[in-house]
Amino acid sequence: MFRTSLAVACAAAMTLAATATVQADTLSGFLARGQLSGQLRAYYFRRDYSTASTVNAQAFSLAGILDYRTPEFLDGFSVGASFFSANALGTQNRNPQRIDATLMGTANAINALGQAFVQYSGHDALVRLGDQLIATPWAGSSDSRVLPATYQAGYGTYSPLAGLTFTAVRILRYKGRTAEGFFRDNNYYPATWHGDANYGGISNLPASARAAGGTLALGADYGRSGLKASVWYYRFYGFAHMFYAQVGETVPTGSPLEPFAGVQVVREWGGLNRFAETATRLFGQPGTAVDNFTLGALAGVKAYGASLSVAYDQLRRAGPGALGGGALISPYTAGYATDPLYTTSMIRGMVELGPGHAWKVRATEAALGKRVRLSASYAAYRTAFEGRDSEIYFGVIYRPRGWVKGLTLRNRLGISNGPANPGRGRFLYNRMMVTYVF
Question: 0.90 cut: is pTM over it?
Fold first, then answer.
């Protein structure tokens, strides 16, 4: 299913205009000087549950992402487009309950024009209009499946000083990781809301929910000499206002041993507006307003390509009457576990588990000239929604050299224990991923 957007029309018009600015140049010659790149992905996911009442599930997908960017014209303008395609190759189980629908939905194929935008770059600024990938802490690509999430948005950055970047984003529509089209929704809306059977997310809002109004995001990022700092404001229209800040620093010691530390703060507020009548359905507890406060800390050490860290996050309501006792509203990461909280794990985090506190220990090791990267972590959650949950994680990444440069082999294993799982038992989630970038 393809959706014609303003970005597609603009891209075509600007491309034609570009040819008029280059004397003695043909359209084919102009397009031939563009950049073509892409990825091939083969992913196999498997879910195993310890309770007999919940059936195990699996899914395979072969996917491709093809990106094209025209040369610059009119002193800084260019046009970009990306085609996304994923196919299960007939491997989907006839029983939908046995399909891991988070990989690519329950259909056999997804085909989508994931990006179509016009961009200007120059004078320390970048402006991009249309369907596109964006990267912000609480609204990004969530790229842990065969296809990333993309947005119909206006995006702009300005970098007046080295290491300092200001960003402004206005999101109008959203295409989740398993959707073919762009819709005025987010991860809280169900598939039936727009008729796309592939759509994935938390999906607890009813089909009668009103269309989302998109998002405004304003941010400032600074990074230099081991220091990284970010300050962001989000307005999730009809859902919540959010302030987010994070500061981290790696301390140079002149020796192989380098300590690092960070802190993060999230503050959310606002009337329920768009989903006031369904708050109980979403979070189990009614409330009069979104009202929460999160404080997190991280500390660790790096040495000889390895690292060891410990992190803590506390999420609590800021006042009486808070939705879900202080639930954190995250329209583009909920159900995806791709939020920036320190204690978020592969399967879930405090956005999904609710107010309370969590801690996480993580270790990484780079070996064989950084071609192999190993990681392991343990996270414990004590939350109001589900009680006592934990998650063990193991990951390995291998990037060979030589003629297979661009190939990445990766396996991720998450073992979750606690009442948040079906049947309140154990959930083992294995993700095998092969990616080739060209």
Answer: yes
